[in-house]
Design a protein that fits this description.
single chain, alpha/beta, 7-stranded mixed sheet, 5-stranded antiparallel sheet
Length: 642
């Protein structure tokens, strides 16, 4: 360019500068580059004219380089355009693919969401159906539960100790006749229903359960309209949280009124039957006691003692039959008194001598002479066991013999074990029948009952009496070969046997109640005879009242040291008469000692009379020394006024 400027005129220089300017502006176009080349060539011809060949060549070389550079740049631009076009097409296709992928994805997501929604709807509908089915089952179970509670008369309850909320089932509301009562004030409403005397016991039981965690079971009375009383059996236990803390109580209330009324009716019937049966037995034993105190020949004394023993034995049997449940429940109380084993067993033996003579069978008695000392135990129960077994053996023996024997099996320093056997040659018992021979009301078969009679209680009672004393009973038998019953019992040693022997401790030699003034309230003439004869011998004075009202009248107008009050009397019974006397305004007469004269022999009845205003309880038949010891406590001047 500098050489061109030196060789040309200003006009040519301007044209060249314009050319280069245009060339630079249009260097991107290939066609423009060719035009520039042609112009350059024309300029070159003119330059040849004005410059030497070397300078021309130099200029030409510059243009060649510029042309190459322009071509190279042009190719690069073409390639860049092609790459841009390719990239644009690729991006287009990529975008199309992406769009297709997005559309496909959205479609798949839509399908998935549709299927999920459909499945969810199906599952939801299924869950709704199952929930409704479960709710229906729960409702049905609730209805069945409430019906079961209504049938059983058992209601449930729960008490929250944290907020003092009480919840009842429908049956509990019905039991306490509070069906329309709200949960507010429910505890107070329930408390008003509870019998005041029983509520204290119930509260104590609840507090003890909360304190110790031990469940409680208590029967209490509830009082309703017109003083109607229901008997409720309440069972409760604690409710604990995860940390083991007591947070509440739950339990049941059962209306046991029908059962309780039946129990009371049964108790009253049994008391009446006990009175009716024990009263004549008491007369027999009482007369026997009076006769023993008379001057009798040895034979007469033996007869009277046998009579007394038989009456005592009969009294014991009556007690067991009248209250057989007492035997089964293990609530029998066994005495421990000195007795002569030989005398007791021989008395039992003599009871059946007449029967065996009538049946023409041999009755044998084989005692063990090594037992020559007194034993300590319940000889009345022993007599009952042996009598049952002997009676059973004789009943089923038509010919041959029956043997009663006892043997010393084991001896220690303080006790012995005695084996009693009752052997017979009777009809025997089959192996199958042996399995049930000791069951209640059970005999070998129906034909046995028809032919020989009996209740089937004898062996069952004997088994219970033996086992409750820690003994064992067993039987070996074969049909047609007879049977052997074996009983093992342990007794404590008492002392060496005196020459005459003892069946019980002798009464005190001297019985003196001189100066005592007594009221006898008794309607049975035999009992009156027994009591008055004994009191006369002991030097006491007495007045007899034939019913409870007469006894109250005598007690109000006379001074007595004590009253012997029969429980069952006409017009006014002993309980009512005693209650009336305890209401007297005169302190001395109100506090007079009253002795219940009763045929009920249970500890529960004894406690009942003591709780009803009686000072003592004397059971029929009684021992004279027992009555004397009771009266002796009240011998002396009349009771003070306070």
């Amino acid at each position: 360019m500098a050489l061109a400027k030196q060789a040309t005129s200003p006009e040519l220089e301007r044209d060249i500068e314009l050319l280069f300017a245009e060339l630079h502006e249009k260097k991107g176009a290939f066609k423009a580059a060719n035009q520039h080349l042609r112009l350059a060539s024309a300029i070159n011809d003119s330059l040849v004219k004005i410059a030497d060949i070397e300078k021309t060549a130099e200029i030409r070389a510059l243009f060649d380089l510029e042309n190459i550079e322009l071509k190279s740049k042009h190719q690069e631009q073409v390639l860049a355009l092609q790459r841009a076009k390719i990239d644009s097409q690729r991006n287009y296709y990529i975008m199309i693919v992406i769009i297709l992928i997005l559309v496909s994805s959205l479609f798949l997501v839509g399908v998935f969401l549709f299927n999920s929604s459909r499945k969810s709807n199906i599952r939801l509908r299924r869950e709704i159906v199952e929930r409704k089915k479960a709710e229906a089952q729960i409702l049905q179970s609730q209805v069945l539960f409430e019906e079961a509670q209504a049938i059983a008369r058992v209601g449930s309850w729960e008490f929250n100790l944290l907020n003092s909320e009480l919840h009842w089932s429908k049956e509990t509301y019905r039991i306490f006749e509070l069906e329309h009562h709200s949960t507010d004030g429910l505890y107070e409403a329930w408390r008003q229903k509870c019998h005041p005397e029983d509520f204290i016991l119930l509260e104590n039981a609840i507090q003890n359960t909360i304190k110790t965690g031990e469940p409680f079971h208590i029967e209490h009375r509830a009082v309703f309209h017109d003083a109607v009383i229901k008997y409720i059996a309440c069972i409760g236990e604690v409710v604990k949280n995860a940390e083991g803390q007591v947070i509440g109580l739950k339990g049941t209330d059962q209306d046991i009124t029908p059962q309780k009324q039946a129990e009371i009716a049964k108790s009253e019937f049994m008391a009446s039957m006990s009175h009716e049966i024990r009263t004549p037995i008491n007369g027999v034993i009482g007369i026997a006691n009076l006769l023993i105190e008379e001057q009798l020949s040895p034979t007469q004394r033996e007869y009277v003692e046998t009579l007394k023993f038989s009456a005592q034995h009969l009294s014991s049997i009556v007690s067991d039959i009248l209250d057989f449940s007492k035997i089964e429940s293990g609530k029998l109380v066994f005495e421990s008194i000195p007795f002569d084993l030989h005398k007791v067993t021989s008395n039992v033996f003599r009871l059946f001598e007449t029967t065996t003579k009538e049946k023409s069978i041999v009755l044998a008695f084989v005692p063990d002479p090594r037992i020559d000392y007194l034993l300590s135990g319940d000889y009345v129960r022993l007599s009952q066991i042996l009598s049952n077994l002997l009676s059973n053996a004789i009943k089923f023996t038509e010919k041959g013999s029956v043997e009663l024997a006892y043997t010393l099996r084991e001896e220690t320093q303080n006790s012995i074990q005695v084996n009693f056997t009752i052997k017979d040659t009777g009809i025997g018992i089959s192996a199958q029948q042996l399995k049930q021979i000791f069951e209640n009301f059970s005999q070998a078969d129906i034909s046995t009952t028809r032919k020989y009679g009996g209740t089937g209680l004898g062996l069952s009672i004997s088994k219970n009496l033996v086992e409750q004393q820690g003994g064992t009973i067993a039987v070996k038998s074969s049909v047609g070969q007879g049977s052997v019953f074996s009983v093992d019992l342990r007794y404590d040693k008492h002392e060496s046997l005196p020459p005459a022997g003892l069946a019980e401790i002798a009464p005190p030699a001297q019985m003196n109640l001189q100066g005592m003034h007594l009221l006898i309230a008794e309607d049975n003439n035999i009992n009156i005879l027994v009591l008055t004869t004994m009191l006369r011998k002991w030097g006491a004075e007495y007045v007899v009242a034939k019913d409870g009202q007469e006894a109250v009248d005598f007690a109000r107008t006379n001074d007595f040291d004590a009253i012997i009050m029969d429980i069952q009397m006409p017009n006014v019974d002993g309980l009512e008469a005693a209650h009336t006397i305890r209401q007297f305004t005169d302190n001395r007469k109100r506090n007079i000692p009253i002795i219940a004269f009763t045929a009920e022999a249970t500890p529960e009845s004894h406690q009942k009379y003591l709780s009803s205003g009686f000072n003592e309880s004397l059971t029929k038949p009684f021992k004279p020394e027992h009555l004397f010891s009771i009266l002796k406590k009240y011998q002396g001047p009349n009771l003070p006024e306070s």
